[in-house]
Amino acid sequence: MALWVMGILAFFLGLLVWRFLWLWRASLEEETGVRFGEETGHLVGDCHLFCKPSTLAQALLKSLAQSAELDARRWPWKNWLNLQTVARFLWPPDHPLEFARDHLQLTDRGIVALDWVVGPLSPGTKVFETLDPLVLLVVPNATGRITKNLHILCRLALQEGFYPVIFNRRGHNGCPLTSLKLQTFADPADLKEALGYIHFRYPSATLFAVSEGSGSGLLLSYLGECGSSSSLRGAVCISPLLKAKEWFKRGCPWWYEWALLLFQKQEISRYAKVLEEVVKMDRVLESCSLRAFEEALFCNQKTQSMDWEAYWDRNDPLRDVDEVAVPVLCLCSVDDPIRGPPAETLPWELFQSNPYFFLLLSPHGGHCGFFGEGPDSSWGNTVALEYLCTLVEFFRTEETTSKKLRQKNAVMEQRYHRSTVHSREALPPSGHFLQETFSWQRSYTR
């Protein structure tokens, strides 16, 4: 009888334990956005780093482990996701940036603008005087708005010795529209020419890029289309919209969609009379959603038209993702109100299988928010620049190691040729030494 009672008690105790574990798992999935059983990544502070194991991943983990910025106790605004998001997009900067603008005429006679950030310089800024500078290309979101977050990023980059330059698309931020063509969501043609110009102007510079929000679609499209011939050595995507087609279909909270749509209509209305020749501007300006706006502007043109599926065959940011040959860090937050739940909006398999992609997932931060100790600071921008500095040191070490290995192989090969003891058949086959020499472009994936 006693054993029977103890068995019943054990059964109900087991049910309670199972229920507790089930609730814990559900709360964990809701908080992190990651389904139980999926790759959990490496815990760094209060963030998770998802990536495929590699030598670069080890170096990045070591660098992030030393960063105090990833400690959530330093984020007093962590639960105010809408405040972080709105403040970064709508709040004016305290200290406007000082620009030196270049207008670049493209092959089709269209014009893009490059804003070289030259100030303000705060005390302790590392002055840009080297012959091989670190140039940081900044790609704004698809609306072209230079947000407060980009102002903070550029000021911080100046302090860290980078030379920031902001890429402005045709017709954005005062850049004149001289052709009847606007840049689609992820057409990298204009960005290619802009990077070619930067490389021509500073041939010995090390080029990096940082994109914000929907601007990441353009940057990732460029990296995929150019592959190993890309001019960039590394990139950071802050709050990217990686599944762009699904995002346009699903939309975002109406107040964010209304604000983004209103700003784009305001910008495009400046060229309404000119674009009327190729675009049905009445449909563009009367659109009630971001998808309808995008479709009316680029799919239903007077001269040519294409369906929505064909448009995304050309503009999906990840269409050539397997060709990307530079390391890319994607900084995302679980509570991003514009992108949506990470379990549905992040391509997890990309970060688990592709050694060039790294996902740093934060539990808080909103969309491009990542408030630090105050609204005028961003721990996300700090981590992004720390990542780029880690790449610089990693490449420098790899190139030094590769150079020493080539020198060692050259000496050994000379000894083989000079040796009279060994016969020709005993010599290693041609290319034996070169097989052990890796360039920095692939050294971190072996």
Structure commentary:
- The protein has 446 residues and is α/β, with parallel strands linked by helices.
- The protein has two domains: 42-242 and 317-396, 3-Layer(aba) Sandwich (Rossmann fold), CATH 3.40.50; 244-312, no CATH class.
- The chain is 43% helix and 14% strand.
- The protein has helices at residues 2-32, 55-65, 81-90, 148-159, 189-201, 216-226, 244-250, 254-268, 272-275, 281-285, 290-298, 308-315, 342-345, 348-353, 379-418, 440-443; strands at 42-44, 47-50, 98-105, 111-119, 134-139, 162-168, 206-212, 232-238, 328-333, 357-362.
- α2 (55-65) packs antiparallel against α15 (379-418).
- It is globular and about 65 Å long.
- The relative contact order is 0.14.
Task: Give the helix/strand layout.
Elements: H1 2-32, E1 42-44, E2 47-50, H2 55-65, H3 81-90, E3 98-105, E4 111-119, E5 134-139, H4 148-159, E6 162-168, H5 189-201, E7 206-212, H6 216-226, E8 232-238, H7 244-250, H8 254-268, H9 272-275, H10 281-285, H11 290-298, H12 308-315, E9 328-333, H13 342-345, H14 348-353, E10 357-362, H15 379-418, H16 440-443
Helix pairs in contact: 2-15
Output the strand order for the largest sheet.
Answer: 1-2-10-9-8-7-5-6-4-3
Q: Could you give me the name of the CATH homologous superfamily of the largest domain?
A: Alpha/Beta hydrolase fold, catalytic domain
**Span between N and C termini?**
64 Å
Main sheet characteristics:
10 strands, mixed
* Poorly predicted sequence stretches spanning 5 or more consecutive residues: 3-29, 31-39, 420-446
Tell me, what is the CATH class of the largest domain? Answer: Alpha Beta
- The CATH architecture of the largest domain can be given as 3-Layer(aba) Sandwich
Shape: globular
Mean pLDDT: 81
Total discrete domains: 2
Strand content: 5-15%
